Task: structure prediction
Amino acid sequence: MSRYLRFLVPLAIFAVIAAFLFKGLDENYNPRAIPSPLIGKPVPEFSLPLLEQPDTQITNKDLLGKVYLLNVWATWCVSCRAEHETLVQLGRMNKVDIYGLNWKDDRVAAQAWLRQLGNPYAANIFDKKGRTAIDLGVYGAPETFLVDAQGIIRYKHAGPVSPDLIRDKILPMVAELKKKG
Amino acid sequence: MFVRIFLLSLFFLISVTPLSAATLADYTFEDAQKAADFRNVIEEMRCLVCQNESLAGSNAELAVDLRNEIFDMMTAGQDKDDVIQFMVARYGDFVLYDPPMKPSTYPLWFGPLFLLLIGAVLLIRALRKKSVAQETELSDNEQQRLDTLLKQPSDSKDAKK
Result:
């Protein structure tokens, strides 16, 4: 017994370390990601102006009745720029509406960004003070929430979304949520 | 050269310290108890951006916003527990430097004890094995040989080297 143990114990330790290291190879793995307590909870109430039309307010109730992605972004956020092309491509697929939460940003700069890099968003919520972002538990842009037709948050990804993540995780979840209605 | 760098860094150290202290001094309460509670609660919260800093110690923009939010809540009459509830509802137990005891945190609380137990078991086993090995009986032949070896004058042993 103890003869085998001499080999099995180091092997087991190696297997555990290897499993953790392998997890680190996944490009969507973010060691700083914090599990959100908001999964399964409704989108917090908000009433904020649109980025495009300062005089028009948008509330959480306006978004009820459809499955959508809520993407937190800002022009000061470098990773958001890296992510943007992926979102533009997702927008072209016409499979899910993307709403933007423009977080603590400059309105003119944000509008210029969309003109320059393309606008994948159905609309952009302009959260100048960042108060709604706090209610959403946002701690760094970009962050992306998947919300169902009842306004319940079903999934959250912190960090830029990759084409792989969209194909393997987000779009399958969207299809399932849309089936449920 | 080195002296100059040293003096320069000393200068920066001196000039930076009062700056960060001043940001917390902006929060004033009429009630001393409230002020202490505020200090405690932001010390106990982890900053989400710089994950090894407390909310009190971080200069990240989000930390500043959250400090302001907590300050507003407390001046509006809410207490420490309300603030903790507010933060945990948004950011999860992660924000707490003192995590609550519940099934998902059992590994955190009992993991070290578990590892200590494993270590203790291995240690005891190793010690037992050692003492067993020492008590190995010599056969009559071996004992005789040992006795003759021990009886040999020490200088002859040295000569063998």
